[in-house]
Amino acid sequence: MKKFLLLFSLFPFFPLSASAQSDDFGLDFELEVEKKLSKQWSLGLEGEVRTRDNTKTMDRWSGGLSVDYKIAKWLKASAGYTLLYDNNEKITYKTNGAVNKEAHYWGVRHRFNVSLTASQKFGNFKFSLRERWQYTYRPAKTVDRWDVDDEEWESHTYSGKGKNVLRSRLQAEFDKKGLAVTPYANVEFFNAWSLQKTRFNVGLDWKLSKQHTLGAFYRYQIVRDDDDDNEPNIHMLGLSYKFKF
After folding, report:
1. So what's the pLDDT on residue 240?
2. Which of 58, 101, 171, 199 has a Cα at 20 to 30 A from 9?
3. pTM (2 decimals)?
4. What is the rounded distance in angstroms from the CA atom of residue 108 to the CA atom of residue 137?
5. What burial class does residue 57 get, using C-beta atoms within 10 Å of its C-beta: 0-12 exposed, 13-18 middle, 19+ buried?
């Protein structure tokens, strides 16, 4: 058990490079409510709040609805919708690297997803692979944008845009019967014709009772090719709470 925790505590640091000083840091708070409808079906509600810029800036709020269907003991299907309210930062640069125009505004995104999760247990270890197709639509938005050269505000419309992403997540858990705490680690790849992000997570879920579970996790996300948000690599600490009834 101690070796397992030590290995997974080091896991997210493997991809770090010398550029880590320029990485961002944020916090992530998650809330989930799950209602079991039958042996196969369950319904879920989720809420999330994130910060960025070393926790100084509110990054986004989101709320979602999901439904799960247990196809077999080892296979689960799910589908969901999430409404995201984002704090956007759009900056364009000149060829010399100087800022040309910039805009800061809040906007909504609509996100739909379908997933298949296969899992298998070997002794006290549980391994799972989740494949998720995700479609996100950002409606058109007209905002005030600052022109650095002219030193004036201009009205600019960012056109509506849809994006498809395949998210592949491989996870390992130490799931021992009778143990209230479940440590886990996972790696997730975001693909949209090319690898855009890689996300590493390590965490602990603490089952307080049959209904209540608290969680804490650390995340490191590497951004390789994201044409939407100009995100930097980011370290995150997160807390979660789940209620089942």
Report:
1. 98
2. 58
3. 0.88
4. 9
5. middle
CA distance 182 to 197: 26
What gap in Å lies between CA 181 and CA 184, rounded to an integer?
10
- For 29-40, what is the mean pLDDT? 97
Q: pLDDT (tens digit, 9 = 90+) per residue, 191-241?
A: 998 999 999 999 999 999 999 999 999 999 999 876 666 789 999 999 999
**What DSSP assignment string belongs to 53-121?**
TTTTEEEEEEEEEEEEEEEETTEEEEEEEEEEEEEEEEEEE-TTS-EEEEEEEEEEEEEEEEEEEEEEE
Name 4's bridge partners: none
- How distant is the alpha carbon of residue 24 from its chain centre? 15
